Protein: FAD-dependent monooxygenase
Organism: Streptacidiphilus alkalitolerans
Amino acid sequence: MTLQPQPRTRTALVIGGGIAGATAALALRRAGIEATVYEAYDSTADGIGGGLTLAPNGLNALDAIGTADLVRDIGSPMTAIVLHSWNGKQLAEFGTPPGVAPMQFVWRTELYRALYAEAVANGVGIVHGKRLVRAEQDGEGVTAHFADGSSAGADLLVGADGIHSTVRSIIDPAAPQPRYAGLVSFGAQVRDSGLASTEGRTLMSFGKRAFFGWWTTEPEGTGRDGARRDGSDRDGTAVWFANLPRTEPMTAAEAHAVGAEEWLRVLTTAFADDRSPALDLLRRTDPADLLITGPMESMPEVPVWHRGRMVLLGDSAHAASSSSGQGASLAIESAVQLARCLRDLPQHQALTAYEQLRRPRVERIIKAAARTNSNKTPGPVGRVVRDAVMPLAMKLVKPEKMAWQYEYRINWSEPVPAPSTAATGARTGSAAPASHSA
Ligand SMILES: Cc1cc2nc3c(=O)[nH]c(=O)nc-3n(C[C@H](O)[C@H](O)[C@H](O)COP(=O)(O)OP(=O)(O)OC[C@H]3O[C@@H](n4cnc5c(N)ncnc54)[C@H](O)[C@@H]3O)c2cc1C
């Protein structure tokens, strides 16, 4: 009997037009695969979501597909993180490890705009108002069904639909769901903040009752050529974020229902005893500008990443808490690696190779971030212990030890070898039944 040659992937449906989805569509096009993005929301994410930091490894991954300059054009370099105790005492300063490029702060809106423009310029179709509700697959292909009654078909379906992924539950109905991480997050931009320049550093304070971070945006950070993108002068503009411990779980909708003015009052009380610019920045924050990011969530290990013609990507597979500063960068890395694997291997092997390449790395980073979250939610006793132990512990943390996170590089032109069969076992979804549980 002759074995049928395994099919290559020619077309892909990318569900979700966030960072993972937009990057995946671009990378798939570079790999010669026709990709269309289906996004639930009616419009792009303009104006939504504040800012985020892209780590050097995320930029390296964008470099692999020739798009990192998009980010450098709109980013501001972040050279160090400085940690303080509630009383203003500096606990530690982490610079970028030697030989590693600095992180880049970007506004989400600007990042989406840049990625979408690049994707469209490269022939990617982006369709809005398409919320995936179910999918079915057979030997010929996979069909996505949307809430508006329409459907679309392709060789592969990529679930880039975020931490509350629908695709994850379709692939594995027993898949774990996100867990509330005990913190509610907020942020804002304050023009004319009166703060001295933080010189490219992010300052953070483990406050008595909540965690606060702030920095000033630098005019020279607004583009590689120093040009200001929108003509606005960002001198003196500060950005802050806060993580407020809260035992009772809360949905994003419930957090919004509380209202900006009430949250500003709650935060003012929470930071009342701290020596940081928190109170001043809260006072200068217009309630209309308060970004209620909502509950911070952590995602337990996702046991099944792919089944048949469906695969997970980005937060749907590996949501690192925002404390890691790595969620977007890991999503970008995974998008590029998935495209390489699909370029070089038949689909079934490609999805297995993708998981083998990605799972150990993302899970190591997620574990490290979970430890950071626990430092942000100590009780009164834990706080005293933390403040006593942390300066010593921080002395032992060498930036070089973090280099493994940041130095990761993908060689786009290097062919991906067929996956090893020994390690694929129970965790690879292609072999796993739909009911596989954690
Ligand atoms: C407060 C906060 C701060 C953060 N800060 C950082 C940071 O500084 N650095 C960093 O690297 N990461 C940060 N992150 C994490 C980072 O934002 C995520 O890891 C990253 O955005 C993941 O991208 P994604 O495309 O996988 O998911 P998402 O960005 O969530 O995108 C998923 C997309 O899928 C769409 N969608 C959902 N369901 C469906 C459906 N059924 N059908 C069609 N479309 C659907 C959604 O509308 C959305 O557009 C932060 C996260 C938070 C919450």
In short: The first helix runs from residue 19 to 30. The mean pLDDT is 86. The domain at 8-78+102-177+300-375 is CATH 3.50.50.60 (FAD/NAD(P)-binding domain). The chain is about 35% helix and 25% strand.
